[in-house]
Amino acid sequence: MEDLRLRIWSENDLGLLHAANTPEMTAHINGPESVDQIIERHARYLRLVASGEARMFVIEDEGARALGSIGYWHVEWREEPALETGWFVLPEAQGRGAASAALALLIDDARAHREGRRFLTAFPGVENSASNGVCRRNGFTLAGSFTEEFRGAELTVNEWALDLTE
């Protein structure tokens, strides 16, 4: 998909989180969040962007239409400082390479803002073939899988990592 851009998350982007909070869009992450949880997620994105602890973006097409969201935030991974990324693309934009193109743009941004962190990590559900493919297409290495509690239920995820220094 061509002509995508990433725009930093803003106060006006709450509606995008509501649009993505459907059973279909959240099937690989144990289901939708409550309205209060969505409002808190939006506030957290704004807070983390303002503090520099995260860079959250809206994925836009050439007409500035929001197609989804992608971002990264500071984490500890395998006992060292790292970045973790996550994304979603709305149904009408899926299957056209938007997530892969957005991740490629995000990788460039992460390299520029990594603050000494070596790895960018991603943890898609093991059954989420689309997101696992996005990681593979963007040069991430599969490091394993694990199961943890997420949104009140167990979730088994693949553990992907990209060396930002390469």
UniProtKB/TrEMBL annotation:
State any GO CC term: cytoplasm
The N-acetyltransferase domain is annotated at 4-165
Keywords, ordered alphabetically: Acyltransferase, Transferase
Could you name the domain of life of the organism this protein comes from? Bacteria
| GO molecular-function terms, A-Z | protein-N-terminal-alanine acetyltransferase activity
Which Pfam families does the UniProt entry name for this protein? Acetyltransf_3
Q: Which residues form the signal peptide?
A: none
Please report which protein family the annotation says this sequence is part of. Answer: Belongs to the acetyltransferase family. RimJ subfamily.
According to UniProt, the name of this protein is N-acetyltransferase domain-containing protein
UniProt organism field: Microbacterium maritypicum MF109
